[in-house]
Amino acid sequence: MISDPDFFRNFGFELEIEPVTPDFFIEETPSRNFLDADFQVLEVPGHCPGSLCFFSRPDQLLIGGDVLFAGGVGRWDLPGGDVDLLFSGIREKLFPLGDAVTVLPGHGPPTKIGTERLTNPFVS
After folding, report:
1. What sign does the dihedral 67-26-96-103 (CA atoms) show?
2. pLDDT, average across residues 64-71
3. pLDDT tens digit string along 98-114?
4. Domains along the chain?
5. Could you tell me which residues come within 8 angstroms of residue 24 by beta carbon, excluding any fewer than 6 positions away?
6. Residue 11 has pLDDT above 80, yes or no
7. b/e code 24-58 from CB counts within 10 Å (16+ = b)
8. Which of 26, 38, 34, 41 lies closest to 93 in space, CA to CA?
9. pLDDT tens figures, 68-87
10. Residue 58: CB partners within 8 Å, gap ≥ 6?
């Protein structure tokens, strides 16, 4: 998406982007070090292809991006979105991390996995 200047235009969005070529790709892995902090990298597509979440097990903290929100989930109706992948990724990859895990979403207030597992109307 970031290397194709017409990607969003092909879906009717009038966005002017400067195409870039990534230096490297981050892939799902049990452990990756970022600036001396270890994170499990989880690929949870659905909001967009290749969407990633970063989990710090010692801190019980998930940096969730636009995947899971307090009472909501990321949009799936934009180019590359897929509702089934999003919902299954949340249930199969995020919920098993544990109810006490704090989620820092890309928008809005923090939440807990347990709260969302029990009350989120999209995936509960």
Report:
1. negative
2. 97
3. 999 999 999 999 999 99
4. 25-119 (3.60.15.10)
5. none
6. no
7. eeeeeeeeeeeeeeebbbbbbbbbbeebbbbbbee
8. 41
9. 999 999 999 988 899 999 99
10. 38
How many other CB atoms sit within 10 Å of the CB of residue 18? 6
pTM over 0.70: yes
- Report the 3 state secondary structure along the chain: CCCCCCCCHHHCCCCCCCCCCCCCCCCCEEEEEECCEEEEEEECCCCCCCCEEEEECCCCEEEEECCEECCEECCCCCCCCCHHHHHHHHHHHHHHHCCCCEEEECCCCCEEHHHHHHHCCCCC
Amino acid at 119: T
